[in-house]
Design a protein that fits this description.
2 copies of one chain form a homodimer. Chain A is an alpha/beta fold. Chain A has 5 helices and 5 strands. The termini of chain A are far apart.
């Protein structure tokens, strides 16, 4: 990001670093390490969250869903017009559809998810003719650390079992 | 339903009536009228919810998401093994994917949703090879009153605008 007033497309590293920090905090809690942040139209981070499905006993508590709920609460609207979302992993179909419903402007994601992704894999939610709002999508942002964190988590879990 | 111990497939009217009651309560609040309930493996309703996206300023606050969260909280698990979900409208892609993540056994829905549905329309979430859990799906349960309630809501909204 060149300045606080010019976020997003040009140099989206700084918000993704914040999303990675959320993913790291998730792995410290024993959760699948995925983190997300949302920026308002001025480029200010208005919400940040990490995956917490286990802690909340909630299969919908993915980082993207939590950060959308938090951002909506922050601005008092169910639509996040001109807001951008950064997430360390390609969103699953549930989260991809939620990002559309929230009217997110741009989606930046880190590692692709061939097995469970819903943006560039699986149902490719935004490619459906019935999708009513399609964010601009930029994949592979800080892909290496995001993927490394996931590999670490799953290797450690296999090691325990 | 023949008895409290034999719910679901045979005669799924009674739970759908409860889902319709949730949809009616939603329309009274000015929300899109969709309602849902979840039954535990013994056929007992453990959660009920209606759509409240406007009241909560939350685009994810669809009836299905709310009822999944409530049922998970009730049983203290992020997986609703052998539980069944009844909803008055075909779930959208977000909710269809959430139902899969929650490991719901059977999905009963009322009216089909050609425009925004994600089960038998649009991305057909459960038909994707990447879908890791597919509920049994029974559509068209109490379709007429569910569809009539939606028609009433959208006609009244058009009339106001």
């Amino acid at each position: 990001m060149n300045s606080d007033d010019q976020p997003s497309k040009a140099a989206p590293m700084r918000p993704m670093e914040q999303a990675l920090a959320q993913a790291k905090a998730a792995v410290d809690r024993g959760e699948v390490p995925v983190g997300a942040v949302i920026l308002d139209p001025q480029g200010k981070v208005i919400a940040a969250a990490g995956n917490q499905t286990l802690a909340d006993h909630d299969p919908t508590a993915h980082a993207e869903i939590l950060v959308i709920k938090a951002a909506c609460a922050a601005i008092g609207s169910e639509r996040l017009i001109d807001c951008d979302l950064y997430v360390t992993l390609e969103p699953c179909p549930m989260c991809a559809a939620a990002i559309s419903l929230a009217r997110i402007r741009r989606l930046y994601y880190g590692a692709p998810d061939e097995k469970s992704g819903g943006v560039d894999h699986g149902p490719r939610i935004y490619a459906q003719s019935s999708c009513h709002h399609r964010p601009e999508v930029y994949g592979g942002i800080s892909e290496q650390p995001a993927a490394a964190l996931l590999r670490f988590f799953f290797a450690a879990r296999r090691d325990k079992s």
